[in-house]
Amino acid sequence: MTDCIFCKIIEKEIPSYPVYEDDMVYAFLDITQTTKGHTLVIPKKHVTDIFEYDEKLASDVFTRIPKIARAIEQAFPDMVGLNMVNNNKEAAYQSVFHSHVHLIPRYGKEDDFSMTFADNGSKYSKEDMVSIAQSINKEIKK
């Protein structure tokens, strides 16, 4: 894809700070460095988001993430946790439309990164929860 910044990074048309590379995956430092060591893991094959993955591509990308995460942890002994974030589609805050996974090291609650989730559980009855689960399960079985 000619206009994709991540494809250009893979092709070395745009410089990056690589941390891992093989035939299927490229991992490099995010230029924002939300926290020290913030790394992006991307498939070398251009896919827009998780909805375009097939099983092989998912395996190629996601089996490498623990190795990269452990390397980050070893490189920064003061790290106390790690967020793995994957945004898909604009409404979910995806800003580069080449699939990527953020590995964001955490150094404490005051490290300038936060994620919060609203607790909407009280809005759904047991029957609602069963219906939601069944709807998803039905699609998985197709």
TrEMBL record:
Residues 5-115 form the HIT domain. Pfam families: HIT (PF01230). Transmembrane segments: none annotated. PROSITE patterns: HIT_1, HIT_2. InterPro entries: HINT (IPR039384), Histidine_triad_CS (IPR019808), Histidine_triad_HIT (IPR001310), HIT-like (IPR011146), HIT-like_sf (IPR036265). A motif (Histidine triad motif) lies at residues 98-102. Signal peptide: none annotated. This is Protein hit.
